[in-house]
Amino acid sequence: MPSAFLKHPFMSQRAVAESDDDAMVGAMLAFELALAEVQEASGAVPAGVSQQMREQLERANVNVAEISEGIASGGNVAIPFVKQSRALLADELKRYWHQGATSQDVVDSALMLLLKPRLAALDNLLLRCRSAATALMETHIDTPMVGRTLMQQALPITFGVKVAHWAIGLEQTRRRLSAIELPVQFGGAVGVHSGWDNLGLEWMDALAERLGLAVPVLPWHTDRYPIHALGTAFDAVAGAAEKIALDVSLLTQTEVGEASEPSAPGMGESSSMPHKRNPVRSALIRGAARQVHGHTSVLINAAAQPLERGLGEWHAEWAPLMESALLVEGALEQVAVLLEGLEVYPEKMQRNLAATGGGIMAEPVARLLAPTLGVERAKAVSAEAAETSRQAARPYSEVLAEHPDVKGVVDPESLRNACDPALYLGSSAAQVTRAKKWLAAQ
Fold this sequence. Notes:
mainly alpha, two-stranded antiparallel ribbon, 4% strand, 4 strands, Fumarase C, Chain A, domain 2, Ribonucleotide Reductase Protein R1, domain 1, elongated, 2 domains, 63% helix
């Protein structure tokens, strides 16, 4: 599969480089060496053995291709890794290698180690997005624009409150991710530390501390809540990022033109149409998010695993879990750039507010006229004037002022105010202020 062409462009390139085959080998090695160290500390391994193992294996050349080939017969990467690494040890050390562990202990713990820096990177990116969004909210707290429902013009809002919703969506996922625990895995063949009695739990706790992972209540070979929690948290971030990309791409449409993605040489160019400036960052974000959604369905459907070891369910988790992390990180890199450099056009927003000839203000006008004309007649007059305004390209307030049911009946200044989108923004500004306070709380 041409991953560099079809998969990696949606991912964080830094994350891809830091999560390759060598990184997985390094994570498995870290688990095994830490296990030998805690066993040595308890007296189950002779003094000095763990250090000798470290010296011999850290300078050895592990054959990644050979490990890869061995997966077909063993079913997972830990089996050929343990076999090859044991062969690299001096004969007197071999018996202490991988002692009390099973292949799932190695793979699950290694994946947690690989994901730990990814969660830190995601947190940093989400904080960066929060900062950029807050700046946009402050700049556009009073910038009126069309609020749209069912893809149609509805009533005025501010661009600041739109961004506030984006920011809250991302921050909610950041706080969710920050609560995620990455637990060590160590239970042995059937999850009860067979042959080691109570030492097994002591080793599990010590392993977690040594590796910087969370301590689980019990080994979780077929209790897959940690994976379910991770996968759904990644999906939530993807959804929040996709919402921003979708909104931005709709605002950048030629006929709307209220915003543009940050410009850069060659960014958004078409292969055949020189005039185009495509919202490529939004496309990459949405493409990544769609893949994460698919991966999440795999993880959710693998949550219930049989007896003491999964048969295919566990195996199905590995790629979707890691790819989700890399895709979400790639999407957030794009979101951060998008928010930091988003080009906003308030004058286009004003133009679109007037696109219906002022009809977008029919609701407040009807409310103003209702006490005098009655509810139904007020609605009819406001709609008639809006259509006349659109067809004659005249200001809505002028057309209304000349309407026989309105002329001399309603105060002209009140009528002008009712037709002004900037005076019918509801709690938009207050919502931005409230959102900023909430965002700054943690």
